[in-house]
Amino acid sequence: MTVLARQTGRMDSGDVNEVENSSHKPRRMGTGSTLDQYMPVLLFFGLYNLVNIKAAVIASTLWSIKATASRRRAGLAIGWWLPSVTVYLILRSGVTILVDEEIVDFGISSEAVYFGIGFVTKFLVGLGFAVTIIIGKPFVAWAIPKVVELAPSVIESRAYVRAMANVTWLIVVFEWVSATWDIWLFNNAGLNLFFLTRTGVNFAMSFIAISGALVYIDRKLDPLDEYPGLIHILESSGRLNQ
Q: Does the pLDDT value for residue 34 go beyond 80?
C-alpha cells in the first residue's frame, strides 16, 4: 500500500536539505503529555459527581492551565493556540460559576450553560473554517506547514490547495454534525451518560476523521515529486515519537 510502503520518502539527501533549509520549515510543536490530555476530563467527571459542577470546572480548568505552563517550562513551543484555548476555558468556567452562584441568570442550569457554550463554540469554529474556504485561504492549507515539513513546490501546488480545502470542509461538517449530536444527546440523556457517551463517541469519530483525512491527503499529494510521504509527515510533526 502506498501510504505504508513509502516509509523512506522519495527525496534524496539534497532534496531533504533544501526543504529543511527553506523558509517554510515549521517550528516543532512538541508532543505534550497524554496525562495532560485526559486529566481535565477525569477531574471534571469525578468532581462533578463527588462535589459539584463548580469544583469540576475549576479543577479541570486549572489542570489545563498547568498543562500549558508545563509545556512552556519544558521549552516546547505553544504558539497562540494553547493560550487562546486556555483563555476560552477560563471564561467558560467563569460564566458557569456565575450561573451556579446565581449571580447571573440565563434561565437554564449551570450544566446547560457550561456545555451549551461548548456546543455554540463548535458551530462557530465550523463557520469560521467555512469562511476561510470561501475567501480562498483554507485553514488547513495555512496550518499544515506550521507543524510539518513540506517543500515550497508542494505547498504552492494546486493539488495541495484543493486537498486542503476539502479537508477543511471535512472539519466544518464534523464540527456541525458533532455539535448537533451533542445537543441531542444532552437533551435526551442524563448528564453522566451524556458526558461518557459524548467523550467516547467524539474520541472515536475524531480518530476516524483524522485518519481518513491523512490518507486522503496522502493520496492527493502522492503524484507530486517533492511530496515526501505520510510517514515523513507524521515523523516531522512528532506524532511517531510519542
A: no
| Residue 228: per-residue pLDDT | 84
Q: What is the pLDDT of residues 141-189, one digit of tens each?
A: 998 888 888 889 999 999 999 999 999 999 999 999 999 999 999 999 9
Question: Is 19 part of any domain?
Answer: no
pLDDT at position 13 over 50: no
Angstrom distance (rounded) from CA 156 to CA 158? 7
Q: How many domains does the structure of the chain reveal?
A: 2
Decide if 96 is inside a domain.
Answer: yes
Percent of the chain past pLDDT 70, that is, above it, reads 81
Same domain membership, residue 178 and residue 68: no
In a domain, 101, yes or no: yes
**pTM of whole model > 0.85?**
no
Q: How far apart are CA 235 and CA 59, in angstroms?
A: 34
* DSSP secondary structure of the chain: -HHHH-SS-S--HHHHHHHHTSTTPPPP-----HHHHHHHHHHHHHHHHHT-HHHHHHHHHHHHHHHHHHHHHTT---TTHHHHHHHHHHHHHHHHHHHHTTSS--SS-HHHHHHHHHHHHHHHHHHHHHHHHHTT--HHHHHHHHHS---HHHHTSHHHHHHHHHHHHHHHHHHHHHHHHHHHHHHHS-HHHHHHHHHHHHHHHHHHHHHHHHHHHHHHHTTSTT---HHHHHHHTTGGG-
- Boundaries of domain holding 88: 26-105
State which of 80-94, 106-120, 146-160 shows the largest mean pLDDT. Answer: 106-120
Does residue 40 lie within any of the structural domains? yes
